[in-house]
Amino acid sequence: MGSIASAASPHVVFDNGSSTECSHKEVCNASIEESIQQAVRRRYPLGHAYFEESWGGEITLVEELSSYEFWRKIQPEGVPVKVRMPELLSIPWTLEYLSVRYGSEAIRTEVRNEDRLSDYCGREGVSCSDDIMSKSTSGMSTVAEAIGKMKEGGDVYIISQIPVNLIADLPVPSFIAGGHRDPLEGDNRSTLLTELGLWVSSSRPPSFTSSVIHYDMNDQLMCQISGWREWTFWDMRRDGHKIPMWSGHYHSPSEVVGSDDSPIQGEMVDVERWPQFAAARWFNTTLQSGECIFIP
After folding, report:
1. In which broad location class does this protein mainly occur, judging by the first location in its UniProt entry (predicted)?
2. pTM, rounded to two decimals
């Protein structure tokens, strides 16, 4: 059962590294006047110096991980960890390769910057304009159509269950296999993978792709085949009471109703409205090509 809330943002701008003060949006490119206006409103992006005192450090990176270590130590502790997976670098996935080989496969797309507000429109105190609704919609497309729009600079992001035919290219990380997982009651099977997801984006500064701050009730393993992705994590067991969630589904690691999203806007956190959030300890990392990260 998961216990980590997260936010992710793939950016091209981080190829040569970046300061933590600019880790989630190109706020460093803002004018002095814009920066002053944001400070007056007391809104700061995740990674800003305002949150420095609550920073818990970088996520641990390990070069190798055995099945025994993962299932007996890492997974039970419920702490994110990065693992090098050099075999991912041999996967020939590029936009061109995917478009040519799997172009007719059906996938789901969203806009580059995720906004879950429309999921909660209609609740008491929540009103949504037509503009919000239009930006929050998802749709179906083919791999070739979506990649074509990306190349043209369109606002499109592939975020979908992975089509079956694409699985042939993908290795299964050895450390999640094997019999070291506690068997399900009455069923002595090993690792159960409930869903395989696919995320594909193509962004050039100043554009970027981002997700909202959210909590996933199931353990996840995110592997980076190409590019890089910025991650920020909070431990719900420790600081869940400081992070508002729309539905309040998380109560404890053993009492979770479902996944959930936070109304906090990570690109500009309103610290006057959410003062406790600034004290929630956060951890971050940049997931590079050829690495996987376990997200409990």
Report:
1. nucleus
2. 0.80
